[in-house]
Specification:
82% of the residues lie in helices and 0% in strands. The chain is an all-alpha fold. The C terminus is likely disordered.
């Protein structure tokens, strides 16, 4: 059901909208967690390392899908808030076409460059074959990943966060069952993990697209609806490209960090693979909440309700901090149990590595969540330059410090320390950028942010 985020008490509206998004991303993360769990428990620690090693490369492809998601979502949110439904439909059709072309190009790159990417990150020989097998199957499913991401972006833009939650809940639970069936029942090894994800994501994608088109038929418009617009593509790209660059460079940075970690051997890789899954579940969840705040900001920007945006910032902070409290406590107090879930033999260097990572990083979730709330408003308002400056500062610091500190007596522990430093500096920058915005009709900057109602 479509929801107008420009009416009602801001804190209540934002919480009701964002909490299903949080639930959705938890289930989304279950895909990767299930893969690692099944690989580590039913195959071997090397299989766990292979899936974790491949994951850093898959994030590059996800970055492009995420960019299409957020680019479409922000523009459609603005159009929905301004009640420009004809342009809204054209923006969606344009995104679907452009995403298909982009996805096809990435699939070609993936198939031809898979070996080179694995060699680039110094993948150990004992996990190289399984890493490549997992990636090859993953790349086949890229169309499902792209169109599902675009679909969830459209749902969010229309104020509907419950439908994606239902899809993901059903799909993720099914993925766990199929993972176990293919690996433990059919003994398909790492390929079983990959094919299970392919199958479940494919079904959820097809259902999501069908519901989108059914929903669109209920939105009344007059006259012929153009299926493609270069003007709207330009506006979508203005948000999507910086988001893609942000996520891509983060992925490249993670790959560089992964290559540094790979130099410490498969035990450290396995421990990092387990703990980074837990970390990414939190960060991706908080990022998704930030995306929800972007939709809220964009709808209210389209409706010229600037005071609601400022109220949304405070409500967003309260929301993410309340979520961080139990998560930080859980990781600090039950880290050994959580890391052990992914390992066949949860002892030794692998376990120590996973625990050390969680203990260093998790207390700083309050810091990074503050940054992501500020980022959400910057992105929803179209301030992509400020958004990218803060994000790249975080990335550059983390990568540079990981490389430097890994060569000191700290060893692998030095790599984990780079996360809190990068997050802290970037958070300060993001909040400053947000505070510098002057909202209001009479302010030139605010007028520049508002969507211009020119003809398509």
């Amino acid at each position: 059901m479509n929801k107008d985020l420009t009416v009602g008490k801001p804190s209540t509206v934002l919480w009701k909208f964002c909490l299903p998004l949080f639930g959705s991303i938890i289930f989304q993360q279950l895909y990767n967690i299930a893969d690692s769990f099944v690989a580590g428990k039913f195959i071997s620690n090397d299989a766990l390392a292979a899936v974790g090693n491949s994951y850093e490369i898959t994030l590059i492809f996800i970055a492009f899908a995420f960019g299409c998601n957020i680019g479409c979502s922000v523009i459609v949110s603005q159009l929905f808030g301004a009640k420009q439904y004809k342009d809204l439909k054209t923006a969606v059709y344009t995104t679907l076409i452009a995403s298909g072309v982009l996805c096809g190009g990435l699939m070609l790159v993936g198939f031809f460059c898979c070996d080179s990417l694995l060699e680039l990150i110094n993948t150990p020989e004992n996990i190289f074959a399984d890493s490549k097998l997992y990636l090859d199957i993953y790349i086949l499913g890229l169309p499902f990943i792209f169109y599902y991401n675009v679909s969830t972006g459209i749902f969010s833009a229309l104020g509907d966060s419950k439908t994606p939650f239902i899809f993901l809940a059903c799909s993720s639970i099914s993925n766990i069952a199929v993972d176990i069936l293919f690996v433990a029942g059919f003994h398909m090894g790492v390929s079983g993990v990959a094919w299970a994800t392919f199958l479940c994501q494919g079904i959820s994608c097809l259902l999501a697209v069908l519901v989108i088109f059914k929903r669109f038929n209920k939105i009344e418009t007059h006259g012929e609806i153009p299926v493609f617009s270069w003007t709207l593509l330009g506006r979508i790209s203005a948000v999507a490209i910086p988001s893609i660059l942000q996520q891509s460079f983060i992925s490249v940075g993670n790959i560089i960090i992964q290559s540094v970690i790979n130099g410490f051997g498969s035990a450290v890789i396995a421990g990092y693979s387990a703990s980074i899954k837990l970390n990414n579940m939190v960060i991706t969840s908080l990022t998704t909440l930030g995306n929800g705040i972007s939709n809220y900001t964009a709808q209210n920007l389209g409706a010229e309700k600037y005071d609601r945006i400022k109220e949304g910032f405070g409500a967003g902070l309260r929301l993410v901090w309340m979520i961080c409290i139990p998560l930080v406590a859980l990781y600090l107090l039950a880290g050994e149990t959580l890391v052990g879930i992914f390992m066949e033999n949860p002892t030794g260097e692998a376990m120590d590595t996973g625990l050390m990572f969680l203990r260093i990083v998790s207390p700083f979730y309050f810091i990074v969540s503050t940054k992501l709330v500020s980022d959400g408003i910057l992105r929803g308002a179209g301030l992509m330059k400020d958004f990218m400056i803060a994000t790249f500062t975080d990335l550059i610091l983390r990568v540079a410090l990981a490389i430097i500190l890994a060569k000191t007596a700290l060893g692998a522990t030095g790599i984990w320390i780079s996360w809190p430093i990068g997050w802290s500096v970037a958070m300060v920058m993001s909040v400053i950028f947000y505070k510098r915005i002057h909202w209001g009709k009479d302010n030139d900057r605010a007028l520049d942010l508002k969507y211009a109602n020119d003809a398509v």
